[in-house]
């Protein structure tokens, strides 16, 4: 599943075979603000491209960042200010306002109203650090209201926790709560986890959480997983999202100046390989992005069809990081046997 950059509509239209779905942040379909490079242009090109490509369309309401004071001073958030919830409520959003039933219903309706034609329906979601927190209770309320609102769409929810909370097991504990309200799909976001450098503890905790959701009949997708995505699929994830350069990990801050984590210089990931190499001078950035998506798609297909062969490919790569991931997957497989 592709999390496109704000101007990758041509990539979506020209290479639909590389995508199963397109995940659009709400700000990427909002009007361009004054002073933006594309001010006055059609802000829905990505939306239209996904529809023309015939791919499932998913939406990220991007609501956690609305609560951050950074939204008032970070120039990169100007388009986020144009999203429906940001226009309807005072920013930064005070979650205590949503304790009122009518205000909560208004916020929920505004978010769902933008998702016509989406394969999945998701409500607002917010950062939290404890299962007993008011913010998490609000997330569950929003998820339950989304379940009651769906007709043919899949009722889903974004679940965003920090790397620290992942390691303490909080994410795995939440599966029962989402099962209780009727959610059938979760998109997991781990703030501050550098996906391509995930260590054994991080990968094991991520897979434990995926198992917890799967055991309760809830599809688990990893958001902004990058090259770690196929490994998570081999370990039980239903799928993952990635960008072609950005959106390969979730940034630690609630709001960041760039397009999500993973924005290092664009490198090439050859077919069948787990290790990036410098891009050749004759290779265009567009060709590199397409090649990298092809590589990830091939590794994901292998992960879904034959996890043992995927483990073998990790070992054969020769680099330390893939070898570590292979050990984690193999150990889990042995324990489950």
Walk me through this protein's architecture:
It is a single chain. By secondary structure, the chain is α/β, with parallel strands linked by helices. Helix content is 40%, strand content 10%. It has helices at residues 9-14, 45-52, 84-88, 101-113, 134-149, 163-167, 170-173, 175-181, 200-214, 229-234, 285-305, 307-317, 320-336, and strands spanning 21-25, 56-60, 120-122, 154-162, 185-191, 219-222, 239-240. Helix 11 packs across helix 12 and helix 12 runs antiparallel to helix 13 (320-336). The longest helix has 21 residues, at 285-305.
Mean pLDDT equals 94
Tell me which oligomeric state these chains represent.
single chain
Number of strands: 7
Q: What is the ordering of alpha helices and beta strands?
A: HEHEHHEHEHHHEHEHEHHH
Bin the helical content. 25-40%
| Number of self-contained structural domains | 1
Shape descriptor: globular
Q: What ranges have pLDDT less than 50 throughout 5 or more consecutive residues?
A: none
Strand order of the main beta sheet, please? Answer: 3-4-5-6-7
Per DSSP, the total helix count is 13
Cα separation of the termini: 31 Å
- Structural class estimated from helices and strands: alpha/beta
Report Rg. Answer: 19 Å
The main β sheet shows up as: 5 strands, parallel
């Amino acid at each position: 599943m592709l999390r496109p950059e704000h101007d990758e509509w041509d990539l979506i239209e020209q290479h639909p075979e590389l995508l199963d779905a397109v995940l659009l942040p709400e700000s990427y379909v909002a009007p361009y603000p004054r002073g933006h490079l594309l001010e006055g242009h059609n802000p829905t090109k990505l939306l239209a491209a996904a529809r023309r490509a015939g791919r499932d369309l998913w939406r990220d309401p991007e609501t956690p960042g609305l609560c951050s004071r950074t939204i008032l001073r970070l120039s990169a958030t100007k388009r986020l200010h144009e999203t429906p919830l940001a226009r309807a409520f005072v920013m930064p959003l005070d979650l205590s306002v949503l304790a009122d039933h009518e205000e909560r219903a208004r916020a929920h309706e505004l978010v769902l109203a933008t998702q016509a034609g989406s394969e999945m329906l998701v409500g607002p979601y917010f950062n939290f650090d404890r299962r007993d927190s008011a913010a998490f209770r609000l997330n569950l309320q929003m998820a339950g209201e989304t379940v009651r609102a769906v007709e043919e769409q899949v009722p889903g929810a974004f679940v965003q926790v920090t790397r620290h909370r992942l390691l303490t097991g909080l994410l795995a504990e939440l599966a029962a709560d989402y099962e209780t309200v009727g959610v059938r799909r979760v998109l997991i976001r781990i703030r501050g986890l550098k996906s391509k450098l995930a260590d054994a503890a991080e990968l094991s905790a991520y897979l434990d959480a995926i198992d917890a959701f799967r055991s309760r009949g809830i599809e688990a997708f990893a958001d902004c997983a990058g090259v770690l995505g196929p490994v998570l699929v081999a370990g039980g994830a239903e799928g993952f999202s990635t960008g072609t350069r950005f959106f390969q990990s979730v940034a630690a801050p609630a709001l960041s100046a760039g397009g999500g984590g993973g924005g290092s210089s664009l490198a090439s990931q050859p077919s069948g390989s787990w290790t990036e190499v410098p891009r050749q001078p004759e290779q265009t950035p567009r060709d590199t992005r397409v090649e990298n998506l092809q590589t990830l798609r091939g590794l994901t297909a292998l992960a879904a069809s034959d996890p043992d062969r995927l483990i073998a490919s990790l070992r054969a790569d020769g680099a330390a990081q893939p070898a570590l991931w292979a050990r984690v997957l193999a150990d889990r497989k042995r324990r489950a046997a």
